[in-house]
Amino acid sequence: MSPAPEKKAAAKNAATKAATTEASARQAPAGTSPLTVAVTGPTGTFGFGLVPLLQSDERVGRVIGIARRPFDPTEHGWSKMRYRQGDVRDVDALEQAFSGADVVVHLAFLIVGGNRETTRSINVEGTLNAFRAAAAAGAKRFVYASSVAAYGFHRDNPVGMTEDWPVRPAARLFYAQEKAELEELLQAESAKHPELALYLLRPPVVLGPHTVGGKDLLPGPLAPLAKRLQGRFRRVPVPVPAFVPEHPLQFVHEDDVGSALLQCIVAAGPPGAYNIAGDGVLSAVDVARELGFLPIPVPAAPVQTAARAISRLPYLPSVGEWIEALSQPAIMDTDRAKTELGWTPRYTGLEALRDTLR
Question: Residue 316: its pLDDT value, please?
Fold first, then answer.
């Protein structure tokens, strides 16, 4: 039975009001100058979630992008962006790029690839270089894309970690170790530069259309499978049985990461750390089913115990370190981002996965 006409009208008015409110929020307040936003690593998954929002937001007047590889922003319709080819290890390049910036968004980070020394010089030293260059440029806000991995994969981690739960290095996984270390280092740097507000976002696995290709679909244990499929996940044409642990997972869509970054850029909430994730908790069984397999669920506990044992093996290759991510669920509570930052994800975790597979 169709809704009554007055209910339809009320729903339409509410939708119109919401759209008007959203459009107004994207306009620069009267008497204020549009922001200049500098973004490191704008050519990755996070950048493709953020830059289109900066392009359409009237509160942002200019975008400065800096990354190592050649890139033409006009090919994507990013007319606000002025792109500089540079390296986060080059302090002079960062200071020049950040000149006049009101906000610096740091997205450049290596997940895999390169030796440990090179990775650390980009991830840790490069992030500190970016923060210090932002402070030297007189920026007002520094927005850093951290990760749920900063919490580590410890057996006492609760399901539904809030931002008050301590950030602790993982036992072996270098990516998680560096994320935890960087949060502490950035907090120390922030204490020296109170004029530069620090925002930290902690997403889980980020999915979306731009995850397929240059990056593996699911970092960690599923990365080898992603490479075998040449960066393009295809649903299995005939269901193949697969034993899959009932290990809980959270996903977030690249567009929702972009909207959370934007809320930080415009200071929609106070500085600090924010957990972000798509609504709903999935499991590896759900992922296998979406990939076209016929999953046979197995208890997560034995798999987690085995993952802990394997992660302790000596001489584990860097890719093998990702097995630690299966040793303990890392499920976050996202209420703070929704209430204090005013962030609402458009995609559930399942919808993010399906959008990636499409």
Answer: 83
pLDDT band at 205 (very low <50, low <70, confident <90, very high): very high
DSSP letter string, 283-327: EHHHHHHHTT-EEEEE-HHHHHHHHHHHHTSTT--TTGGGGGGGS
Helices (H), the chain: 5-25, 45-56, 91-98, 116-120, 126-137, 174-192, 223-228, 254-265, 284-290, 300-311, 335-339, 349-357
In a 3-state reduction of DSSP, which class is residue 89? coil
Region for residue 276 given its phi and psi (left: phi exceeds 0; alpha: psi -120 to 50; beta: otherwise): beta
C-alpha angle with apex 55: 54 to 61, nearest 5 degrees? 75
66 and 126 in contact (C-beta within 8 Å)?
Answer: no
**Interatomic CA distance for residues 57 and 80, integer angstroms:** 10
**Fold observed for domain 31-357:** Rossmann fold (3.40.50)
pLDDT at 5: 42
Q: Look up tokens 């740091």; give the residue.
A: 106
Q: 204, 323, 184, 298: which is closest to 256 by C-alpha?
A: 204
Asked if residue 294 lies in contact with residue 241, where contact means CB atoms within 8 angstroms, the answer is yes
Computed over every residue of the chain, the mean pLDDT equals: 87
Q: pTM (2 decimals)? A: 0.86
Mean pLDDT, residues 47-51 taken together: 96
| pLDDT for residue 42 | 96
Q: Break the chain into its structural domains and give their ranges.
A: 31-357
Q: What's the mean pLDDT in 194-202?
A: 98
Rounded Cα distance, 56 and 68, in Å: 25
Count of other CB atoms within 10 angstroms of residue 317: 7
